[in-house]
UniProtKB/TrEMBL annotation:
Molecular-function GO terms, alphabetical: DNA binding; DNA-binding transcription factor activity
Organism name: Paenibacillus albiflavus
Top-level taxon of origin: Bacteria
The name this protein goes by in its record: MerR family transcriptional regulator
Key words of the record: DNA-binding, Repressor, Transcription, Transcription regulation
DNA-binding is among the record's keywords: yes
Sequence ranges assigned to domain HTH merR-type in this UniProt record: 1-46, 119-188
Presence of the UniProt keyword Nucleus in the record: no
């Protein structure tokens, strides 16, 4: 059964140009053309279009396209692995956001307990926070954090305040807050004002939870597609 582009677009509440973009990006299988150049979409194409629309909010168009290209060549194992990796990464970000909120809630600016561990190397901080050393160096370069320097060898040194800042930066960057917003929140934290930092961190956690729900829906859409294609029995 041949299906008109306009009918698919109406069903999915998108434009026909979006359908053409998906086709150009290789998200759907090749489309046959009539002698007049019109596309002959099939139910299989509709299933792919429906799937990418369901996956895109949680996984983004780039990853969704990569996954669906693997499905087209029956490489289900790789497709599933990509989905699992994305979900695992999101759960890690959620844990960091929760840890950040916990740290912000427990801050006592009049106590020295936050500095109890003393100075740490960049490797120590990376292991404790789960943040790559490359990201820490980059955030230093763009002025988000200023570590101490060892007087003898010039190595970076961090204290508990830096750890707190790094976790907050990671949470805000994951939620796509602007560089200006992050700097403002960090400055307020330096001025012993944690209220905006707490609010934004909680908002970030809510966004991550929402995205996890979107990923669950996207994974379900992929499952439905695979069933229709006979990849799942």
């Amino acid at each position: 059964m041949k299906i008109r582009p306009i009918d698919i677009a109406r069903k999915l509440n998108i434009s026909t140009s979006t359908l053409r973009h998906y086709e150009a990006w290789g998200i759907i299988p090749p489309v046959a053309r009539q002698s007049n150049g019109y596309r002959d979409y099939t139910e299989e194409h509709v299933a792919y279009f429906t799937c990418v629309r369901g996956m895109e909010p949680g996984f983004g168009i780039k990853l969704s396209a990569t996954v669906l290209k693997r499905i087209q060549v029956n490489d289900l194992d790789t497709a599933i692995q990509l989905i699992i990796e994305a979900q695992t990464f999101l759960m890690q970000e959620k844990k960091i956001a929760e840890k950040t909120i916990g740290i912000l809630d427990s801050i006592d600016f009049d106590s020295n307990k936050v500095f109890a561990k003393g100075k740490m190397s960049i490797g120590d901080v990376s292991r404790e926070t789960g943040i790559p050393t490359s990201a820490i160096r980059h955030w230093e370069q763009i002025g988000l954090i200023t570590p101490y320097r060892d007087d003898d060898n010039g190595y970076r040194l961090f204290d508990r305040n830096h750890v707190r800042q790094l976790l907050l930066i990671r949470t805000l960057r994951t939620s796509n807050y602007s560089l200006e917003t992050i700097k403002r929140v960090l400055n307020e934290l330096e001025d012993k004002n944690t209220e905006e930092a707490k609010k934004i961190a909680r908002d970030s956690l809510c966004n991550l939870i929402k995205k996890s729900h979107e990923q669950l829906h996207g994974a379900h859409c992929l499952f439905v597609l695979c069933q229709k294609l006979g990849l799942y029995q």
